[in-house]
Design a protein that fits this description.
The structure is a single chain. This protein is an alpha/beta fold and about 260 residues long. The strands form two sheets. The protein has a seven-stranded mixed beta sheet with strand order 1-2-3-4-5-6-7. Strands 8-9-10-11-12 form a five-stranded mixed beta sheet, with no helix packed on it. The structure holds zinc ion (2 copies). One zinc ion binds next to loops.
Length: about 260
């Protein structure tokens, strides 16, 4: 319990924490490799991800934080090998609330279903510190034995956002640099100008299958649509509280199962 799986292919699965609102629940990617597995992002840490992953594989695991935000970094502390970008090393090591961006509007929205997690409180929720055991940066390569991923530094949404790109299969794990939804460039450590450059780069990368930090996966055409809309000044979320309240008034069930088109 606590996780559900969407199987993409023989090697890639999307793992999702249950009881977290759709719009906030990050995608946890489990990539099975010949020599070791990757766990890309770790959710909010409401249940033990490591315990669950160990029911799925016997291989060594490298856990990767695409960035330090609370919706991605909550389970990272459980893993022995914790990799991410040095620009957010301090946030990973600190955990807590503010540095991992559980702050402002994001700490005012009910993002966890009280029916499933009755002990959760937006007043006391905090991320367990997870100091990185190694850094990943632009140009680094992770060789799983049967496939390799290049590390892309994709700053803008956050300074240490990274993506993993398999140039052979054209599969990209993009974190929150791009997903099929309204993009976020308003965190205190976001940088809109740098973000534009990152998105221009992703537009022309050649990725054909994008597994993102949130929402269902998509292909090249949708990648370009999302990015073009953002660059044209659309497709951003300014104020999460207003957005949440409006949707709640419209009767949106934030905890209803997402429709996943693979
Ligand atoms: Zn984020
Ligand atoms: Zn996120």
């Amino acid at each position: 319990m606590g996780f559900k799986v969407i199987r993409i292919d023989n090697e890639i699965s999307c793992v999702q924490e249950t009881g977290v609102a759709n719009f906030m629940r990050c995608n946890i990617w489990h990539v099975k490799g010949r020599d070791y597995d990757l766990v890309i992002d770790t959710g909010m840490g409401l249940n033990s991800l490591k315990k669950w992953i160990l029911t799925q594989t016997q291989k060594p695991i490298k856990a990767i934080g695409t960035h330090s935000h609370f919706d991605h970094s909550g389970g990272l502390h459980e893993f022995d090998c914790r990799l991410g970008h040095k620009a957010e090393a301090d946030a990973f090591a600190s955990g807590g609330r503010t540095k991992v961006m559980y702050r402002g509007g994001w700490s005012k929205i009910e993002i966890v279903n009280p029916k499933e997690h009755p002990d959760f409180s937006i007043k006391t929720f905090s991320i367990t510190p997870a100091p990185l055991t190694g850094y990943l940066d632009e140009g680094d390569v992770l060789d799983l034995g049967n496939r390799t991923f290049q590390i892309l530094h994709l700053p803008g949404h956050s300074p240490g956002s990274i993506g993993l790109y398999d140039a052979q299969s054209k599969v990209l794990f993009s974190g929150d640099a791009v997903y099929n939804g309204q993009l976020l460039d308003t965190h205190p450590h976001s940088d809109k100008l740098v973000y534009r450059a990152t998105l221009e780069r992703l537009h022309d990368l050649g990725a054909e299958e994008i597994h993102a930090g949130h929402e269902p996966s998509f292909g090249t055409l949708q990648l370009r649509n999302i990015i073009s809309a953002y660059l044209a000044g659309e497709n951003t979320m300014a104020d999460p509280v207003t957005w949440y309240n409006e949707n709640t008034k419209l009767g949106v069930d934030h905890y209803k199962d997402q429709v996943w088109v693979s």
